[in-house]
Amino acid sequence: MTRIAVLGAGKIGESLLSGLLDAGRSPQDLMFTERYPQRAAELAKKYDIEHVDVIGALQRADVVVIAVKPQDIEPLLDEMAPELPPGKLVVSMCAGLPTALFERRLPAGTAVVRVMPNTPMLVGEAMSAISGGSHAQDSDLDLVEELLGSVGKVVRLPESQQDAVTALSGSGPAYFFYLVEAMIDAGILLGIPRATAAELIVQSAVGAAAMLREGGGHPVMLREAVTSPAGTTIAGIRELEKHGVRAALIDAIEAARDRSVELGRQHEAG
């Protein structure tokens, strides 16, 4: 079996490890690094997976998954560069960081695959987009797609689109949470208890998402099916349009894309 090391066992790193175990991977084929001893001990006990240092991970794993925050990448690459053996596949889950950064800092010829996951990986419903670097082969992408398929859906796309993906699906759950939060507050304003309002809105969101995914209908068609002439829904939608909610969402996603680009540029000279 392919041995996999996850460098950085935060929420995304832990979710990947959990998903791989659920998909049938042996704990003996998984390992992780974690700089906080207490958390490392908790994860090792919880999943029966070995906690190792970075050097041990590089030497023993076939696939090295980097799941640290972008601002922590420089010291990690400094540690990895002189120790990474040839033939290892490096998978980056760092938002905004291009494969060229890893190829420049790591030994020549290192195969790198860039991944943009999102937090629904925590419940096995991630949307991950993958792109190969200049040395990555189709077999590398096949392997990464198989690994990430254990925690959700996967699409392949050119790396030039990764910053847009970061803004859409990477940050996307936060936008949905924001809307749900506002709708719950509206329910409270209208006299519904918070717990009841939350149950009403969350289940409505789950049902709407299922209709989008399983029904195959266009969002406009699905919305129109709820919108009766002179009814309550069209009255609400008129207010959304009046307040520019559609334009605000588009602007928010564009701003997130720009920030992703900026994160990458911060490391261009690295």
UniProtKB/TrEMBL annotation:
InterPro entries: 6-PGluconate_DH-like_C_sf, NAD(P)-bd_dom_sf, P5C_Rdtase_cat_N, P5CR-like_CS, P5CR_dimer, Pyrroline-COOH_reductase
Pathway: Amino-acid biosynthesis; L-proline biosynthesis; L-proline from L-glutamate 5-semialdehyde: step 1/1
Family matches, as Pfam families: F420_oxidored, P5CR_dimer
Keyword presence, Iron-sulfur: no
Tree of life domain: Bacteria
Gene3D superfamilies to which the protein is assigned, alphabetical: NAD(P)-binding Rossmann-like Domain, ProC C-terminal domain-like
Family: Belongs to the pyrroline-5-carboxylate reductase family.
Role summary: Catalyzes the reduction of 1-pyrroline-5-carboxylate (PCA) to L-proline.
Name of the featured protein: Pyrroline-5-carboxylate reductase
Lineage per the UniProt record: Bacteria, Bacillati, Actinomycetota, Actinomycetes, Pseudonocardiales
Originating gene: proC
